[in-house]
Specification:
The structure is a single chain. By secondary structure, the protein is an alpha/beta fold. Helices cover 43% and strands 9% of the residues. The chain is elongated, with a radius of gyration of 31 Å. This is BTB domain-containing protein.
Length: 480
C-alpha cells in the first residue's frame, strides 16, 4: 500500500522528531504609531530631537516632538529657524531643542506627519476649513510641495462648491485654497462668487454675505481692487438695462415701435400696461427711482433676485384669443441681467498668473486650457524679449529695482485696456453655471513687459524666509 506523507508547510520547516508539522501564518508587522507621551506631548518619531511649541490663545500650547533634520529638509523656512535664535537648547548635552511656531496646530500636525512619512493620517477628503488652515501653514513655511500627492484630488472635491448653499459665506476660504495649490478654474469660480455676493456695509466697506470685510481676508493684494471695480461696473450695467425700457416707453421715442410687445397687435396698449405695472413693482423692491450705481449697497445676487421676482400685468384686449395672448410680453429684465453677468470681465494680473502656473506645477494640479495658453504666450514672449535684449546688463541697486518695479506696475495698469482674445468661458453666477461667449476677458498678460514677468517668477522662486507667497498677500506676513 502506498504511503501518504503529511504536507510540509512552505512557511516553517517541520520540527525534527515531531509526528506532523504545524503550518504557522506570518504575523503582520506592527508599525510604530506616534502616540502621545506621558506628558501629553505628541511624538512623531521615537528618536525625536526637537520640541515644537505651538501657542494658542486662551488654552495651553500644543507640543510636538519631531526630528529636526526632517523639518529642515522639508522647508527652507524651518531650516532657517532651526539655525537662528528662535531655537533654544544644547545639542552637546543631548537635550531636546525647542522651536516655537505660530499657526493652526492641526494643520501643522498634518504637515509634520507627512514629513515623517505617516501618510495614514492624511485625510482623503478634508473639510474646507482644514484646507484653508493647511494652505495658510504651507504657504507661510514654504512647503506646499509636500502636498503634491493629494492636492489635485482635494481641489477636485471643491469643483462644485460654487453651487452649494454656503458658498457665498465661505468662498474666500476656497479662494485661498485655490490660490495656494494653483487651481485656476476654482480660483476664477470663487472670485466670481465673491463679486456677485459682496455688498457695502454702513461704513461703505465691501463685505461678504456674513458681514466680514474683504480687506481682512487672505487674498492676493490686487484682488480687492478688482472685486470692487468689477462689482461696481456690473451693478451699473444692470441698472442701465433697467432704465433703458423705462426711458423708451416713458418718452415714446420714435423708431421703437413694438420694442417689447411680442404679439404685434395692440402693442401700444400692451407696453403701456407693462410700464404702468412695472413702476409699482420696482417701487416695492426699492428700485424706483432707479438708484445711482454708487449708492446701491446690496449685492449683485440680491439685485438679480429682486429683478427676477418683478412681474408685469399682461394686457388683455377686447378681442382676446389664446394665440394672441400677451402673457409672454416683458421688458427683458431677466435677459439683460443674464447678459450683464455672462459678459462680466474679471481680469487676472501677470503676477497672479505667474504664481498660479508655478503652484500648479509644485502641487501637481491639472493645468487648465487657459493656463496652458498663458504659459505658451509667456514663454514665447520671454524668448523674444531675451533675443532682443542686450547681451549684458549691469546689476541694479535695490533702489533702482524698486523704481523699475513701480514703473512696471504702471504698465500693468495701462495694459488692462488691451484687446483680449474672444474665448468661451464658464462662470458660476448666483448658484448656477452659465456658458457664454465673452469678448471681455482681460487677462492682461498680452501686454506685460518681459522684465515684469521675469521679476514675478524670481519672486515666486526665491527662498526668502519671509515667504514668496506673502509677496502677493494683502496682509503683513508677520501677522500669520
Amino acid at each position: 500500500m502506498a504511503s501518504t506523507e503529511e504536507p510540509v508547510s512552505p512557511i516553517e520547516p517541520p520540527t525534527p522528531g515531531s509526528e506532523k508539522s504545524v503550518a504557522c501564518a506570518l504575523e503582520p508587522i506592527t508599525e510604530a504609531k506616534d502616540e502621545g507621551t506621558a506628558s501629553g506631548n505628541i511624538q512623531f518619531h521615537p528618536d525625536a530631537d526637537l520640541q515644537v511649541i505651538i501657542n494658542q490663545t486662551g488654552v495651553d500650547p500644543i507640543v510636538y516632538l519631531v526630528c529636526a533634520s526632517a523639518l529642515g529638509c522639508a522647508s527652507l523656512v524651518w531650516r532657517t529657524m532651526l539655525h537662528s535664535d528662535d531655537t533654544s537648547g544644547k545639542e552637546a548635552r543631548g537635550q531636546v531643542k525647542t522651536l516655537k511656531l505660530d499657526g493652526n496646530p492641526e494643520a501643522l500636525g498634518l504637515l509634520f506627519r507627512i514629513v515623517h512619512y505617516d501618510f495614514s493620517h492624511v485625510p482623503k477628503e478634508p473639510t474646507l476649513d482644514q484646507l484653508f488652515e493647511l494652505g495658510k501653514s504651507a504657504c507661510k513655511y514654504q512647503c506646499t510641495h509636500l502636498l503634491y500627492p493629494w492636492a489635485n484630488e482635494w481641489t477636485k472635491s471643491l469643483s462644485q462648491f460654487a453651487g452649494e448653499d454656503d458658498c457665498y459665506s465661505e468662498c474666500h476660504k476656497a479662494l485661498f485654497a485655490a490660490w495656494t495649490f494653483g487651481d485656476l478654474r476654482l480660483y476664477r469660480d470663487m472670485v466670481d462668487a465673491l463679486i456677485v455676493s459682496t455688498e457695502l456695509d454702513t461704513n461703505g466697506k465691501i463685505v461678504n454675505i456674513a458681514g466680514k470685510p474683504l480687506e481682512d481676508m487672505l487674498m492676493p493684494c490686487d484682488l480687492l481692487e478688482i472685486i470692487t471695480t468689477v462689482r461696481a461696473s456690473t451693478i451699473e450695467n444692470i441698472l442701465d438695462s433697467v432704465k433703458k425700457p423705462l426711458n423708451i416707453l416713458s418718452c415714446g421715442e420714435n423708431g421703437q415701435e413694438n420694442a417689447y410687445c411680442k404679439v404685434g397687435k395692440d402693442s401700444h396698449a400692451c407696453e403701456t400696461m407693462m410700464l404702468g405695472s412695472i413702476i409699482p413693482a420696482l417701487t416695492r423692491a426699492r428700485l424706483f427711482p432707479i438708484p445711482e450705481p454708487g449708492k446701491f449697497a446690496g449685492s449683485i445676487a440680491q439685485l438679480k433676485e429682486k429683478l427676477d421676482n418683478i412681474k408685469t400685468i399682461p394686457y388683455v384686449g377686447r378681442e382676446w384669443a389664446p394665440h394672441m395672448s400677451h402673457d409672454g410680453c416683458n421688458l427683458g429684465f431677466r435677459e439683460s441681467v443674464t447678459t450683464c453677468l455672462t459678459t462680466m470681465v474679471v481680469p487676472i494680473s501677470s503676477n497672479i498668473m505667474c504664481w498660479m502656473s508655478a503652484q500648479a506645477k509644485t502641487c501637481g494640479i491639472e493645468t487648465t486650457k487657459e493656463l496652458k495658453e498663458w504659459q505658451s504666450k509667456f514663454e514665447n514672449h520671454s524668448l523674444e524679449s531675451l533675443g532682443n535684449s542686450e547681451s549684458a546688463q549691469p546689476l541694479k541697486t535695490p533702489d533702482i529695482e524698486e523704481q523699475d518695479h513701480a514703473e512696471s506696475e504702471g504698465t500693468l495698469e495701462e495694459s488692462r485696456g488691451a484687446s483680449p482674445d474672444s474665448k468661451k468661458l464658464t462662470t458660476r453666477i448666483v448658484g448656477r453655471t452659465v456658458e457664454a461667449k465673452s469678448k471681455g476677458r482681460k487677462d492682461m498678460f498680452c501686454a506685460i513687459e518681459k522684465k515684469e514677468s521675469m521679476r514675478s517668477v524670481m519672486l515666486i522662486c526665491s527662498g526668502h524666509p519671509v515667504g514668496a507667497a506673502m509677496e502677493y498677500l494683502e496682509v503683513d506676513s508677520g501677522d500669520y
